[in-house]
Design goal:
single chain, 354 residues, alpha/beta, DNA polymerase, domain 1, TIM Barrel, 2 domains, 10-stranded mixed β-sheet, 37% helix, binds iron/sulfur cluster, iron-sulfur, transferase, disulfide bond, Probable dual-specificity RNA methyltransferase RlmN
């Protein structure tokens, strides 16, 4: 079976043209799939039953993920454990920002792979290993499924912002992630905005340059987490392939090509990367780079003995970076009372399925 939502507008057009369908039918069906976000082909009311029968006979369908577990935090953050058609599990996280009307938004943290091959030592997903790539439809399905849930519960706002920070390394599934974004931003469908999306990478240098060459409005976040190669190799095996000098050179390439600022994610770990030495090294490393540091006090991961610095220590680290002339903030914590970091919901489910 082929999920029709894997097809771009042009691909859908080629398919329907091969069936002898008129051009307006392509627009209709694309809008049903991506604007109305139907969950079954027979919901496309103004599309003839003959066409739906033909599509189904050729193996086209809409394959929905099943929500196996939903956790709701006191702050409104929701985490979903989703079962895919082949039984694989992924997670996505909905963060609701309320308060001032102008700042209200729903941000969804989506997965791009089942598991992850990158093996970062502070990450629950990394400990689960890599299983397979997600398809375009499986990425879109996380957004559309969340929209359906919001609508069913009377929430007026849909998902408006996306961060590719869930399970997996998005740049290790580069073409699929970019195609999914292109479909999500197609005005004839969901009409989302690239400037409200961010891709987070652990630092795959060739893909950072490839992404820069696309010159899109999509934001780029890089998981830095260390100020020197020795610590970075300890935390992130990817650093063995791409040391910091290559990574920073790719960051300059990105900034020069796009004119955009880079976000550096920095998981702060007590006694490992939170000292004055690290502050000095970071200041030297990113000199001349338009960047911002997102400090994330590390989440506890079972089986690891990383210590999360308290808020006072985190603020002190932030202030030292600011004193060096760097832009730095501490990431607002969402969903602290439910399974914390990405991969934890799946890891806990596998350990003790309900
Ligand atoms: S932090 Fe990201 S890149 Fe690293 S193992 Fe986890 S999911 Fe993979």
């Amino acid at each position: 079976m082929i999920d029709l939502r894997n097809l771009s507008f042009d691909e859908l057009e080629a398919l329907l043209t091969s069936y002898g369908q008129p051009a307006f039918r392509v627009k209709q069906l694309f809008a049903w799939l991506h604007d109305k976000q139907i969950t079954a082909l027979d919901q496309a009311h103004n599309v003839s039953q003959a066409l739906i029968d033909q599509l189904q006979a050729d193996g086209y369908t809409i394959e929905l993920a099943t929500c196996l577990k939903r956790q709701v935090s006191k702050d409104g953050t929701e985490k979903y454990l989703l079962g895919l058609g082949d039984g694989q599990l992924i997670e996505c996280v909905l963060m609701k920002y309320r308060g001032d009307y102008s700042k209200q938004r729903n941000t969804l943290c989506v997965s791009s792979q089942v598991g992850c091959a990158m093996g970062c030592s502070f990450c629950a997903t990394g400990t689960l290993g890599f299983h397979r790539q997600l398809t375009v439809a499986e990425i879109l399905g996380q957004v559309y499924g969340t929209n359906a849930l919001l609508k069913a519960e009377g929430e007026p706002m849909q998902v408006r912002n996306l961060v590719f920070m869930g399970m997996g390394e998005p740049f290790a599934n580069f073409d699929t992630v970019i195609k999914a974004i292109d479909i999500l931003c197609d005005k004839r469908g969901a009409d989302m905005a690239r400037r409200r999306m961010t891709i987070s990478t652990c630092g795959l240098v060739p893909e950072i340059k490839r992404f820069a060459d696309l010159q899109t409005d999509i934001g780029l976040a890089i998981s830095l987490h260390a100020s020197n190669d020795e610590t970075r190799r300890r935390l992130m095996p990817v650093a063995k392939s791409y040391p910091l000098d290559q990574l920073i050179e790719a960051c300059h390439y990105y900034c020069d090509k796009t004119g955009r600022r880079i976000s550096f994610e920095y998981a702060l770990i007590a006694g490992i990367n939170d000292g004055n030495k690290e502050v000095d090294e970071l200041a030297r490393l990113v000199k001349g780079l338009d960047c911002h540091f997102n400090i994330i006090p590390v989440n506890p991961v079972s089986g690891k003995d990383f210590v999360r610095p308290d808020m006072r220590a985190s603020r002190a680290f932030q202030n030292k970076l600011v004193a060096k002339g760097l832009a730095a903030s501490i990431r607002e914590e969402k969903g602290a009372d439910i399974d914390g970091a990405c991969g934890q919901l799946k890891a806990n489910h596998l350990a003790a399925p309900e």
